[in-house]
Amino acid sequence: MDTSAASPSTQPFVEFDRVWLAYNDDLLARNVFAVEDISLQVGQGEFIAIVGPSGCGKSTFMKLTTGLRMPSMGKIRVGGEPVTGPLKISGMAFQSPSLLPWRTTLDNVLLPLEIVEPYRSQFKDRRKEYEERALKLLDSVGLGGMGKKYPWELSGGMQQRASICRALIHEPKMLLLDEPFGALDAFTREELWCTLRDLWEAQRFNVILVTHDLRESVFLADTVYCMSRSPGRFVVRREIGIPRRRELEVTYTKEFSDTVLELRGHIGALRTPVNQ
Amino acid sequence: MNKKKQVERWSPWILMVAIVIVWEVICSGFGVSEFIFPSPSRIWEQTLEHSATIMGHAWRTFWVTMAGFGIAIVVGVLLGFLIGSSRLAYAAIYPLMTAFNALPKAAFVPILVVWFGIGAGPAILTAFLICFFPITVNIATGLATLEPELEDVLRVLGAKRWDVLMKVGLPRSLPYFYGSLKVAITLAFVGTTVSEMTAANEGIGYLLISAGSSMQMGLAFSGLLVVGIMAMLMYELFSWIEKHTTAWAHRGSQG
Fold first, then answer.
1. CA–CA separation, B126 vs B112, rounded Å?
2. Does any CB of chain B come closer than 8 Å to the CB of residue A112?
């Protein structure tokens, strides 16, 4: 496996070329955009984080990347192909785990396989095999033996782990996380950082992590993008040079806190005009 | 603690017995005429005396109600599914349905008699008309209140609207559905009885009218008692089914 930070120069995996989005025609006519002039290139297997104040269009960015929304202007390419509709090669997880309460944790994780092809048509025949895969995945995030439990029997952190498993069960090329650890306590959050880091290091899928936790973004990502508040624009692109594999101790080093401080400076600078 | 639970469990029975005793005492104590307000003991006597007749009428009311209720489930679920899954259908149907629901269903009975004649037809349809609305509303609510995140999770996998409905919407609306059945079945008994009072020669509604007109007040009260018992039993049945099929929705404050 390639352990160096992916270089965005060769054939980017995700490419935004001056993308603008207004949520409807009315807003478009009045030139009110949720995100403006977004350009970026993400390399194969790169872990990027997008940080910014709430309401700055981070979630909009995710919807654009997955093809749930089409840009008003500009082009988006994923895997070399223009995005024309929902991308089945991606998995999503959100701040709320949104597991289905009538399904066991195992069945919740299996849900994507009941929907996405080619698993869907083989689901009945190969259920045993899929179940094993799901159990293995649950095991790898520390949920061994929890498959038969219902979501409401799990703690918040465990539910979020299960939710990430559900996002990964169909082996997506791209994982999209929208503030996935926002509702967890600090210790659980750090545990889950490590879980996510281990999953990513093992499988090297692309990750787009939307967060407002700067430490989280610096700890996990190869590249951090700062977004300004409405309209959402990228203002800073910062590559994180901290070598892999990163342990939690790294968050207490000077290099780490300097990076966080620097990013914080960008956010702070963005905030000032809003407060005036 | 345990004793408190016991009391709670038996409280409806205790209350009922208390009411019956007070009723009996008032009737015998003040010497109230049985043609005005019969005592519980008198009602019980009459119930036993006419038990064969009452059972016949009760059976009629029961199956007529169940027929109307059955139609209401089918129509209610289909309509609820349509309204809950399509914004257009919601916009088009909901206002009309609300207006329709505001009409007193007893007012339909004379019209139904013209169309179907005296008998089971009007009663079944009245029961249906009065009880499909809560079923429809509850199914529609269950389907329409999906978490947008969950929908995104599935849509990004290429799920069609139908997939989302079958995998998430329908199971999610089941507790609402069972909840509505409990309300609907009691309403259905109201519909049947009201219709039978004017448009049937059989059933508890008919029994009430004929007992009333022949001043057999005890018998009239027996009729009320029987409808009440049937409605309560069906209510308990559906609440039992609800508890045992959608346990996940009744897990208390957790989650």
1. 8
2. yes
